[in-house]
Structures are given as C-alpha cells and as structure tokens.
Write a structure and sequence with these properties.
It is globular, with a radius of gyration of 23 Å. It has about 425 residues and is an alpha/beta fold. It contains 14 helices and 18 strands. Helix 12 links the parallel strand 15 and strand 16. The strands form five sheets. Strands 8, 9, 12, 13, 14, 17 and 18 form a seven-stranded mixed β-sheet that branches. The chain has three domains: about 120 residues, no CATH class; about 35 residues; about 260 residues, Glycoside hydrolase/deacetylase (TIM Barrel).
Length: about 425
C-alpha cells in the first residue's frame, strides 16, 4: 500500500530519439527531494500527448494518476498547463503500459535520469524542436503579413469602440460565447438557484483543424472567475438578483457564493450524497450521464424530489468536440429525454465531458434550451487515495466564488461532511444551478 506524501510531477519534454523511440522527461518533487526521469512511452500515448499542442514555453504538471473510462474503454490522465496565474487542465487517453510506468515512477521503482543519458535525451529534444524547419521558414516569411493583419483587426476594434462610446462587445465581434449568471432564491424549495443565461453568435462552418483549435477546457473559467465583477441589482421579497459581467466567457459566481456539483452519476452512491446534502441544508447540482440513468432510475428521482438540480453530462461521456453537430445534438437529446422521463422537468444545464467544448457544442446545447456549465475548482477527487486528500484541497484554494467539480466516488462521499463544514465556516451561500 502506498503511503501519502506530497508528490509533484512536471513534464519537462516530449520527443523521439533518432532511432524513433518515444520518450518523456519528468521532474519529480517529493518531500524536498528533486529528481528527473526519462521514460520510454508507447506510440499511442505519445500521439495523445502530442495532440495537446506545444508542450514547451509553459509550466506543465502531469498527473501521477490515471483513471479507467468505461465509456471509451480506455485509460486517461491529465496535464495542467500553467501560464502566469492561468491553469488549464487537458486530458489525454493513455495505454495500460503508460499507467504502469507512471505507477512505478510514483512508487520510486525507476532509476533517476543520469548524466550518461544526456546525449540520448538531447537527441529526442532536438527532434522535438526541429521536426519542420521548412515550415518554420515559411512561417517566418509570412510574419510581416500576419503582423499587418493583426494591426488591421485591432484598428477596426478601436474604430468600433469609438463609434459605440467604448461599449463594443468584443466577445461578440470575435465570435465567442458570453455568459451571464444570476442568483435568486427559489421560494418553493428555499434554496438559492443560480441561473445561467448565455448569448451566442451565429455558428460558422469550420474545418476539423479549426474546430480542434477552438476547443477550450473547463479550468479556463478560472481566468474569467478572477475577473468577475458582480453587482446586486435588485433585492425583493427574498430574491437577490446578481448580474455577472456579460463579456466574460462561460460561467462564474460572485465572490460570496459557492457551488458543489457532482459529475458522472447517477450511481449507487447518489442517494447517500443527497442525504448528506439534505441534512446540511445544502443545495447541489448533479450532472448525469444518460447511460447511467437507466441503471439507477430511483437515484434520479430521489435527487430531483429532494430539490437538487439535475443536468445533462452527455449520453455516453464521449469527447463531444470530435462529433459532428448532428451527432452532438442527438447525443444531448438522448440523455435529456432519459432524465426528463423520470424528473418530469426540462433539463436546462449541460456539462461537457472532460470540459472539452467548442462553438458547435455550445450551439447544440443552446438549441435544446440548455446552458453550458463548467467549473473553476477541481480537487481531482477521482484521483484521491483517501478522503483527507480531497478535504486538503479545499483548505488550500480560495473558496469564494468557487464552482467545485466532484464525482460520485466513495472517497468523495466520506469527505463531503468535512467539505461542507469547512465551506460553511467561510460564511458563503451555497447555490445550485438551473
């Protein structure tokens, strides 16, 4: 059995040797000790990591844990790319061999990188950074034209800003989605409900490459969260309406609120989670996977009857940005119908699996009267070895304005009373989404 200790893994490089062997270089910090490791990985995992984009220039933490995804029938893990104060989690599928190697590394069973290996890894680094010299040459030749184009775009934005008195909505001009959150009190259930209202521009057809470039992930909401400016506009008979700046992309909460959300249910643990929440008078939002609904129908009705909000987490937990617009729509509709047949209430929330979302997916959800709900706090409870690991996360991040993503796991269930006690001590108002 592994004993708990703080362990941080940082991805230093990804590349191939001159003989074509795929490798990653990882730095491990644990108990004030630092060491680097060079690990050979399989082609499948290498390509999955490579597809996440350039892995140099930013600090990149790599998760020491992996999880089995029964919907895709494969393992997956994650990295967190940090640029300044912005943290973006990215998920990748991986092989069982990779899972085993990382476990060996985690348990201290692999030898650290030695200077004798430097030449071998340098070859991989060189190949990683110089695969396409012709491409770089063409790009350099086009830099002046690109610079001119950028100047023209910013010039147009400046003109539009002057013409509209400085009130131009840059998010709409650039084709993004904007979101507005309002918080009110539902007198029928006496729990605060946060309403998400999104505004999207018309969708344009995109090539597969541009679709991939437009994919964003959930913790990008952290950036927007820090910029949220909220103001109590109206207070009447128990209702408090709070408008969140419309130009912020996706979703955030005002600083005096906090939200607990639970993904990947329903499950055999749903009822126990709801019981804890109900006993503590805490509302929460459950994002259910359509396939699970048919196996745990009573859990769905139980959560609904106890005043919890229920949203759509896709039919089969797929990476929906890889689907066509029609496939996305069919997937969402199938899941919503399964939920609505039990709750007799329209589903108005959608959370994309893995936090991967693009313009088409937001549009598909919007056409079905669903708003896209992401998150800005991720304790990675599915990776936790024990409940204390989860609770520890809550003590080390700012709770105010947090939308926490949790999962219906045993460790999370056991940690939940302590989590609620801690957040109540912060004098925050718990909200559910609707």
């Amino acid at each position: 059995m592994e004993t708990y200790s703080t362990q941080v893994m940082e991805l230093l490089s990804l590349g191939r040797t001159s003989s074509g062997v795929s490798q990653i270089k990882i730095a491990v910090t644990q108990d004030d000790k630092y060491a680097t490791y060079v690990i050979e990985i399989d082609e499948f995992t290498f390509l999955e990591l490579e597809a996440l984009g350039p892995l140099h220039g930013d600090r990149i933490r790599i998760s020491p844990y992996s999880k089995w995804d029964p919907y895709r029938n494969s393992y997956y893990s994650s990295i967190i790319r940090s640029t300044g104060s912005i943290r973006v989690p990215l998920y990748f599928a991986c092989s069982e061999a990779y899972v085993h190697r990382i476990k060996q590394l985690r348990q201290g069973e692999l030898p650290p990188y030695s200077p004798d290996e430097k030449g071998r890894m340098d070859e991989a680094d060189d190949q990683k950074t110089s695969n396409h010299p012709k491409l770089r040459s063409r790009f350099s030749a086009r830099l002046p034209k690109i610079a001119v184009a950028i100047l023209i775009v910013f010039g147009l934005l400046a003109i539009l800003s002057i013409a509209t008195g400085g009130k131009v909505d840059s998010a709409r001009i650039l084709g993004g989605q904007v979101a507005k959150a309002t918080v009110s009190h539902d007198d029928s259930k006496s729990i605060p409900i946060a309403h998400a209202a999104s505004s999207t521009t018309g969708n344009k057809s995109m090539t597969e490459a541009s679709q991939a470039a437009e994919v964003v992930t959930a913790d990008q909401a952290v950036m927007a969260q820090d910029q949220v400016q909220s103001e109590a506009r109206e207070e009447q008979s128990g209702f408090t309406i709070i408008d969140v700046d419309e130009e912020k992309k996706f979703f955030g909460l005002p600083k005096n609120y906090v939200a607990l959300t639970f993904d990947d249910g329903p499950s055999k643990l749903t009822k126990e989670i709801v019981d804890i929440l109900t006993k503590q008078d805490v509302p929460a939002t459950f994002l259910f996977v359509g396939q699970n609904v048919s196996h745990h129908k009573e859990a769905v009705t139980y959560a609904s009857n106890h005043g919890m909000s229920i949203g759509n987490h896709s039919w089969d937990h797929s990476v929906m940005t890889k689907f066509t617009l029609q496939e996305q729509s069919e997937n969402l509709s199938k899941a919503s119908k399964a939920i609505e047949a039990l709750t007799h209430t329209p589903v108005t929330l959608f959370r994309p699996p893995y936090g991967a979302v693009n313009d088409d997916l937001v549009s598909a959800a919007d056409k079905q009267e669903m708003k896209t709900l992401l998150w800005n706090r991720d304790p990675e409870d599915w990776n936790a070895k024990n409940p204390d690991d989860i609770v520890r996360y809550f003590h080390h991040v700012e709770a105010a304005g947090g939308i926490y993503v949790l999962h219906e796991d045993k460790n999370t269930l056991e940690a939940l009373p302590s989590i609620i006690k801690y957040l109540k001590g912060k004098d925050l108002t718990f909200v559910a989404f609707k």
